[in-house]
Write a structure and sequence with these properties.
- The chain has 489 residues and is α/β, with parallel strands linked by helices.
- The chain is built from 16 helices and 15 strands.
- It has helices at 10-13, 27-33, 35-38, 56-71, 86-101, 124-133, 144-155, 158-161, 240-243, 255-258, 263-278, 292-305, 339-342, 360-373, 393-400, 459-475; strands at residues 42-43, 49-50, 113-117, 136-141, 164-168, 227-232, 282-289, 309-317, 320-328, 346-352, 377-381, 386-391, 420-421, 429-439, 442-449.
- Strand 3, helix 6 and strand 4 (136-141) form a beta-alpha-beta unit.
- Bound molecules: S-adenosyl-L-homocysteine (SAH).
- Residues 82, 84, 117-120, 122, 124-125, 140-143, 146, 169, 187, 213-214, 216, 233, 235, 256-257 line the site of S-adenosyl-L-homocysteine.
Length: 489
């Protein structure tokens, strides 16, 4: 249930290495080459070849011919199973490729091994990852239909079948709801089960609904196994009604594929819990996220459990957006939040339309309170309208604790934006914040590091973003809900 996008915006988010980024699928060509596809193609008044996205058979046939034509893969799924779109699923693979090749955390050997959590009948990620990049996979699932068809899709592609293991997630079916077979199950419906995750940290207990389903990583990953990454397209929805929201497409999807009590929030929370136990058994933990609102609380949880890095990105799925979240427990090589913010030791933002009863002095006081609240020491100079702040790393962490604004969507070519490294340094930060009255009602807030001093790249910017949010909340309470953070020029 991602945000709707306007037409034409899509290309921006297609990964540059995606086969389809410059050459979207040519339905006309495919129809001429594959008679089975031809019957689904019709022509618009302008003569453009189209398919009916509401027709499951058409979307499945398109996926089949694309996998065959562009990836030499033989593929099929039974009626009603979730049908993946190849260009979009490829984006997630390429994002992981970026994560693995970035030096945010140390790079490793060339052989790449990943886990696809909930590979589905379509087994799309292992098929793409193995054929495009030679990665090996363990694809997990719980339903008989998914396991059977994923196996079939692997076996029908002997050129890569050695690279992919399909692994059944074992759980006590007696403890789960009755109908967990044949793809009719509602994942995560087993109640009162204490699976192998009993030792996991109960960090999601605050959630409206906890995940009570089959194991996800803990209990599935074998002792001593090491992986470069895990990936997951989780059951996003809490109910099937919620999942049927897009009347413009028919990608199929059974309750097992679409639904989990607590929705994606609960499911990904469990992945986080498992990752706390498994720590560096995986270099990167990743998941797709369907709702942007889930991202913020997931990031907050990741902070709680002390990951070393968090990255996010945006994926385009036809007319809707999805997000990607990645985290790691591997100590970072670079102390980076965002390379394009790294060089900025001076940052500014404007407070426009501030009510006349508030002067630069009031704002200055609020700046002081903001930093003092974290324990940082402040010395203000009312005559020159500045406040000098000395903050230790723990003060900075305190400031950023509930910060959702460091959440940045990555640009594909900026591998390190959107990440947040919380590694510590012993150096204190000396920040001067000055408030200038530009014209009545318009104030400029400027933050700078002490000359000659540098901070963890991006740290100042994150703190400053937090300050901006706090001041807006205080001085423009009615606008806060619509305010979206912007980059400081
Ligand atoms: N990866 C495929 C399918 C995603 S649908 C795609 O992107 O199209 C979600 C899948 O997760 C379903 O096949 C469902 O059976 C599976 N699933 C649900 N809970 C699971 C668990 N605990 N472990 C493994 N798979 C699970």
């Amino acid at each position: 249930m991602g945000k709707k996008r306007r037409r034409g915006e899509e290309k921006r988010s297609i990964h540059p290495r995606n086969k389809y980024s410059d050459n979207p699928p040519d339905f006309g060509l495919l129809a001429s080459l594959y008679p089975s596809f031809q019957s689904y193609v019709f022509y618009s008044r302008e003569g453009k070849p189209r398919i009916d996205w509401k027709d499951f058979n058409a979307t499945r046939e398109l996926t089949r011919v694309l996998l065959l034509h562009d990836h030499s893969l033989t593929w099929w799924i039974p009626d009603g199973q979730l049908c993946p779109t190849v260009p979009n699923r490829s984006n997630y693979i390429h994002w992981i490729e970026d994560l693995l090749s970035s030096d945010t955390i140390p790079r490793e050997k060339d052989v790449v091994k990943g886990v696809d959590i909930g590979t589905g009948a379509n087994c799309i990620y292992p098929l793409l990852g193995a054929s495009l990049l030679g990665w090996s996979f363990v694809g997990t699932d719980v339903t008989d239909v998914a396991l059977e068809w994923a196996e079939r899709n692997v076996k029908n592609n002997p050129q890569i079948s050695e690279l992919i293991e399909i692994r059944k997630v074992d759980f006590d079916e007696k403890l789960s709801d009755q109908n967990t077979k044949n793809g009719e199950s509602c994942m995560g419906m087993s109640r009162n089960t204490e699976l192998s995750t009993s030792s996991s940290v109960d960090l999601c207990s605050g959630e409206k609904k906890n995940y009570h389903g089959p194991p996800i990583l803990l209990g599935v990953v074998k002792a001593g196994e090491k992986f470069d990454f895990c990936m997951c397209n989780p059951p996003f929805f809490e109910t099937m009604e919620e999942s049927g929201l897009n009347p413009n497409t028919s990608c199929g999807g059974t309750p097992a594929e679409m639904v989990c009590p607590g929705g994606e929030q609960a499911f990904i929370c469990r992945i986080i819990q498992d990752s706390v136990q498994l720590k560096q058994s995986f270099r990167w933990y990743t998941s797709m996220v369907g709702k942007k609102s889930s991202l913020k609380s997931l990031i907050a949880k990741l902070r709680e459990v002390g990951v070393t890095v968090v990255k996010t990105t945006e994926f385009v799925q036809g007319q809707t957006c999805r997000w990607g979240i990645a985290w790691s427990f591997v100590p970072p090589t670079k102390k980076i939040i965002s390379s394009h913010l790294a060089s900025k030791n001076v940052l500014t933002f404007m407070l426009e339309g501030i009510q006349r009863q508030f002067s630069a002095f009031h704002v200055l006081q609020s700046v002081e309170s903001f930093f003092q609240a974290s324990g940082a020491s402040c010395k203000s100079n009312a005559a020159s309208f500045h406040v000098d702040i000395r903050a230790t790393m723990s003060h900075c962490k305190e400031i950023l604790k509930n910060n959702s604004s460091t959440l940045k969507e990555t640009e594909w070519d900026d591998e390190s934006s959107g990440s947040l490294c919380l590694s510590s340094t012993s150096d204190d930060l000396h920040i001067r914040v000055t408030v200038f009255e530009q014209i009545p009602g318009t104030l400029l807030v400027r933050g700078s590091l002490k000359p000659g001093e540098s901070s963890l790249p991006g740290l100042l910017s994150s703190i400053f973003q937090q300050l901006e949010d706090a001041l807006r909340k205080e001085f423009f309470p009615e606008k806060v809900s619509t305010h979206t953070s912007k980059n400081h020029a």
